User: Which sequence fits this backbone?
């Protein structure tokens, strides 16, 4: 963040922060669930998880809980990442590599748009 | 700010340390490093979780809230693999899964009013943007661009804000003294040495809303002409120390601390100093001695800190809570703040409520509320629906107030008149099962130990008080003891050097005044009415209720109980150590305390 040299600088930071704040207030808590069963880990779930964490940190996102889960019975789709936005249905993504994970955070969690091509549909 | 997906809270109370909590933490950290999880999982120290007698050492893992107990170092690799790599609960060590809840600070009750605590728990403490979104540093901007230092002091003076550390001196006046004092440099100090057992309001503010304290201090420095500031925080608050340090660094990075703040010619720098946990270092002159690197002992006043403070220079000391209110007063105006509260006590006050009350934890109420409202409406009443006996306000130097004083509107003056203090806002509620002589003895044990020993009345007086109280509790009280206690209380209060000694007799004085009958029962009848003092109680088995099940006899640690199966059992009073195990165990309530 830039240094504050005048009251106007401070007010500008406040305006920007307020916008982010509103975004957060309308959202609530988001859950990201990463499948970390033996198959998931073998398929690279650790790297995917790390990419998600790095993204949350670098984008300064708040109110996101990362949870782990075991094998959900879709071995061929591992690593599996599930996203639950507050008040919405769970969305399940398959074969998520770190790059895709970053994209999911950006487009789905921040942007609110489901990435249909990565989704596993039952 | 680093983001961790999971947090492990390891209990490091004395019992857990004895059981190897630090070794366990080390092993956990090593394993996390080995598995490459060290950037994902943060290991933190915390106070007691659960019952250390049965489950040490133990830890809680968030966000799941799994409570692991009885862990040994050998269990760690398996636990790390299950919990953090595979993400499932290692069931054989898990005790229970708790809902993630904040036991110290729950949602506000109807009669509460939150100003200091308003944003704690809802904003991320070290996200300075969030603080700014909540009008953070706008008050600083306002004073620097629109107000002169004298106007700033006048605003704080008009608000009626008084020191939240306990003594209740006008903050505006204190600032004016420093402004008018001759000398350079001037120091602005924040007292974050919260030492009262059971008080944690300052810790929560420092941990949960640190920037409000930093902003309050910068405003204070601008108003008084101070160029250097110190936050004196006790080392027992490692998270608070870390948080306030980071907050100060963030403020420096923003350019709101340092040289020429907001392009004005006002410069101010801020540092953290850690205290080593001596209770007396919460006293302002002892605190300053401690910052200077000297032994933490008070010195006589005058000269007051505003004339000769830190390193002999003009200084001002305010409490954490006081500083955190200042930005709000500047933003919303003195009139708004002065309209809250009661008589000469404006605004709100936080209390750390503890003891035999249903809802314990941190609360914030406007001055003028009665103790009855606090205990019954905010606190939800007495635990197990027992009868109320007394409430002690203000920490170990406060007085115990009886039922008759519960309808007193709370402010600094009312509590002072009732023989207690507001102090740092401790509030211990006691039910009918509490022995008031024993409570007085308990608090005296604390102050006697924490007396720094510099002045005689406090050092020797508290010792004598403790000896007499212990004697009375043991049934060896003499008739003249009550007079001696009263005399000692008066002498210690009048002749001690600092607030610790002056306040130390309060628990004794107030219990003597409001619960004299209990002292008399102990001394003249050798009886403890609340059935607490061990040497004054006798356990007896009631004929007719006892079925001769032998449960008590089998569990008595000293074999004081004898009797044939299906026959009345008898306790030998000469062997009995009054441990109370038989009374707790008896399924027929056949054991009575006399």
Assistant:
């Amino acid at each position: 963040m830039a240094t504050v040299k005048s009251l106007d600088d401070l007010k500008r930071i406040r305006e920007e922060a307020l916008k982010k704040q509103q975004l957060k207030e309308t959202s609530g808590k988001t859950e990201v669930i990463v499948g970390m069963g033996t198959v998931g880990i073998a398929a690279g779930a650790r790297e995917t998880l790390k990419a998600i964490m790095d993204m949350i940190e670098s984008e300064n996102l708040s109110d996101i809980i990362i949870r782990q889960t075991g094998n959900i019975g879709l071995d061929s789709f591992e690593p599996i990442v599930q996203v639950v936005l507050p008040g919405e249905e769970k969305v399940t993504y398959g074969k998520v590599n770190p790059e895709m994970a970053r994209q999911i955070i950006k487009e789905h969690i921040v942007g609110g748009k489901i990435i249909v091509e990565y989704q596993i549909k039952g | 700010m680093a983001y961790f997906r999971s947090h492990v809270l390891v209990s490091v109370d004395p019992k857990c340390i004895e059981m190897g909590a630090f070794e366990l933490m080390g092993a956990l950290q090593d394993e996390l490093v080995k598995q490459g999880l060290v950037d994902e999982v943060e290991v933190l120290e915390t106070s007691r979780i659960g019952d250390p007698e049965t489950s040490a050492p133990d830890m809680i893992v968030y966000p799941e809230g799994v409570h692991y107990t009885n862990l040994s170092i050998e269990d760690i690799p398996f636990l790390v693999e299950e919990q953090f790599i595979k993400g499932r609960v290692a069931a054989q060590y898990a005790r229970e899964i708790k809902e993630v809840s904040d036991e110290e600070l729950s949602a506000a009750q109807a009669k509460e009013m939150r100003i200091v605590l308003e944003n704690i728990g809802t904003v991320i403490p070290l996200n300075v943007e969030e603080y700014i979104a909540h009008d953070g540093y706008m008050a600083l901007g306002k004073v620097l661009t629109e107000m002169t230092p004298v106007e700033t002091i006048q605003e704080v003076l008009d608000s009626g804000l008084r020191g939240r550390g306990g003594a209740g001196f006008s903050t505006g006046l204190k600032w004016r003294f420093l402004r008018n004092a001759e000398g350079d440099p001037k120091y602005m100090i924040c007292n974050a040495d919260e030492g009262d057992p059971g008080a944690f309001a300052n810790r929560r503010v420092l941990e949960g809303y640190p920037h409000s304290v930093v902003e309050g201090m910068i405003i204070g420095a601008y108003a008084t002409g101070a160029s250097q500031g110190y936050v004196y925080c006790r080392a027992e608050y490692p998270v608070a120390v870390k948080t306030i340090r980071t907050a100060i660094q963030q403020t420096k990075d923003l350019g709101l601390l340092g040289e020429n703040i907001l392009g004005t010619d006002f410069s101010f720098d801020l540092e953290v100093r850690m205290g080593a946990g001596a209770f007396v270092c919460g006293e302002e002159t002892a605190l300053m001695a401690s910052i200077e690197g000297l032994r933490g002992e008070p010195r006589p006043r005058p000269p007051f800190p505003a004339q000769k403070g830190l390193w002999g220079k003009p200084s001002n000391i305010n409490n954490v809570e006081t500083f955190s209110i200042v930005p709000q007063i500047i933003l919303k105006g003195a009139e708004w703040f002065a309209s809250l509260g009661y008589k000469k006590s404006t605004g709100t006050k936080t209390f750390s409520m503890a003891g035999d009350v249903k809802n314990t934890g941190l609360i914030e109420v406007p001055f003028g509320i009665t103790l009855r409202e606090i205990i019954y409406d905010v606190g939800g009443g007495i635990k197990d629906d027992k009868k109320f006996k007394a409430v002690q306000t203000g920490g170990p130097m406060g007085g115990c107030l009886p039922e008759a004083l519960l309808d007193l509107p709370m402010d600094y003056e009312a509590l002072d008149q009732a023989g207690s203090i507001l102090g740092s806002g401790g509030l211990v509620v006691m039910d009918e099962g509490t022995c008031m002589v024993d409570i007085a003895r308990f608090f005296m044990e604390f102050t006697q130990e924490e007396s720094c020993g510099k002045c005689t009345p406090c050092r020797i007086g508290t010792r004598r008080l403790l000896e007499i109280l212990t004697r009375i509790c043991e049934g060896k009280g003499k008739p003249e003891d009550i007079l001696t206690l009263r005399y000692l209380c008066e002498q210690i209060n009048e002749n001690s050097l600092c607030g610790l000694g002056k306040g130390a007799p309060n628990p004794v004085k107030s219990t003597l005044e409001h619960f004299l009958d209990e002292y008399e029962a102990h001394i003249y009848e050798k009886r403890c009415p609340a059935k607490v003092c061990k040497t004054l109680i006798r356990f007896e088995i009631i004929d007719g209720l006892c079925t001769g099940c032998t449960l008590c006899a089998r569990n008595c640690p000293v074999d004081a109980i004898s009797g044939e199966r299906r026959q009345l059992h008898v306790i030998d009073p000469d062997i009995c150590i009054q441990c109370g195990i038989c009374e707790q165990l008896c399924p027929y309530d056949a054991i009575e305390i006399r």
Observations:
- Chain A is about 45% helix and 15% strand.
- Chain A has a mean pLDDT of 84.
- The radius of gyration of chain A is 17 Å.
